[in-house]
Amino acid sequence: MITSKLPNVGTTIFTTMSQLAAETGAINLSQGFPDFDGPDELREALARAVMAGHNQYAPMAGLPALREQVALKIQSLYQRQVSADSEVTITPGATQAIFCAIHAVIRTGDEVIVFDPCYDSYEPAVELAGGVCIHQPLSQPNFSIDWQKLADAITPRTRMIVLNTPHNPSGALIDRADLERLAALIRDRDIYLLSDEVYEHLVFDGHEHVSVLRHEELYQRAFVISSFGKTYHVTGWKTGYVVAPPALTAELRKVHQYVSFTGVTPLQWALAEFMEAHPEHVRELPGFYQAKRDLFCDLLSGSRFGVSRAAGTYFQLADYSAIRPDLDDVAMAQWLTREHGVASIPISVFYQSPPADLRLVRFCFAKREETLRQAAARLCAI
Ligand code: PMP
Ligand code: GLN
Questions:
Q1: What is the mean pLDDT of the chain?
Q2: pLDDT of res. 1
Q3: DSSP assignment of 58-121
Q4: What's the CA gap between 115 and 51, in Å, rounded?
Q5: Which of 55, 93, 135, 321 has a 20 to 30 Å separation from 168 between CA atoms?
């Protein structure tokens, strides 16, 4: 028998719940992806790129035109000048970016602090690098960082802290004061930062996205990661990027070079062309998704679910303690899918030790209006 290197890893909750939704014919608000397509012009640009013969390897770090567009966007949104050559790397998905950033710096015995509930891909990457995740629960009910607990969790072995803002699954955001606290905490220590900002453009109610790219001191030790999949409604394109100072980028590329070598060429041409032609797309995204969040939450106000509007991401948590307090969230997500035809994600799976009284499921509202209306009608009938 093989001894698994990842004995605790099974099938992800996203695969499990999407499969259950397909089997039962439920409306799938579980795994995070839109049920509508990306812009026509973007998809046409991909067809053109393929037919124009952009089908061989792109440069290892990514197509220069796309790296340039990323640098321009960062300048425009976060007022930071980054070098497209030495600070931006295109990867086949943010997931691969996360894996490479962790492997670039984590060694045997290193500790990586993650905040629970925590996205599922961080820990396996840390374990494969020989490190260990130290799970720090976010405070309830706002999913904010407990700074004293974080300070207490830092040891001489701490090598990385993983931030995720806007936060999946809670939708919580960090603010500028949080960045200052973080900077003060790690100032004299040899600690890197992985900032997972894949939902950077999905921030609502007039709030700004507090990117680590806005903070000079923190940026100097950070890998900032994003995903074109979320931003352009094409999660299946699996294309993302990492922004990091030149020395960290050089180490990251050593790993990326041998994990995939490069990203998919014609996708990069299409994204570069679309970003250049439509810089307004990212500025319009908050309004686009806020309207979906508001529609979904307004509809749910006629249900017995308790909802506190997500500040960011395309996920909405819903408290079901008035409906089935007897069920834990895994059982609740199954029951909702099988009995009421709406699939969701139980959030306890993102915890090392979930709070015993957790009664929250996550719905994805990156869906067409009719999908949200149908799902809400089913949820209101419970
Ligand atoms: N980080 C977070 C927080 C995510 O929610 C996701 C995907 N849904 C990713 C990373 C991975 O992004 P990608 O699909 O580009 O690999
Ligand atoms: N990030 C997506 C979510 O949170 C899922 C991506 C995946 O299935 N790996 O739903």
A1: 97
A2: 87
A3: PPTT--HHHHHHHHHHHHHHH-----TTTTEEEESSHHHHHHHHHHHH--TT-EEEEEES--TT
A4: 45
A5: 321
| 250-284 CB burial, b ≥16 within 10 A, e <16 | ebbbebbeeebebbbbbbbbbbbbbbeeeeebbee
Residue range 229-241: average pLDDT?
A: 98
Whole-number pLDDT of residue 214? 97
Domain boundaries, the chain: 13-38+284-380, 40-277
Q: What is the mean pLDDT of residues 296-322?
A: 98
Q: Do the domains at 13-38+284-380 and 40-277 have one common CATH topology?
A: no
**Does the C-beta of 265 come closer than 6 Å to ligand 2?**
no
**Å from CA of 102 to ligand 1 middle:** 15
CA distance 375 to 184: 45
Instruction: Decide which of 3.40.50.2300, 2.40.10.10, 3.30.870.10, 3.90.1150.10 is the CATH code for 13-38+284-380.
Output: 3.90.1150.10
Spacing, Cα 14 to ligand 2 middle (Å) = 6
Ligand 1 site: residues with CB under 6 angstroms?
32, 93-95, 119, 164, 168, 196, 198, 227, 229, 235, 238, 240
Q: Ligand 1: which of 90, 119, 228, 234 to mutate, judged by most atoms within 8 Å of the beta carbon?
A: 119
Q: What is the pLDDT of residue 225?
A: 98
Fold of 40-277: Aspartate Aminotransferase; domain 2 (3.40.640)
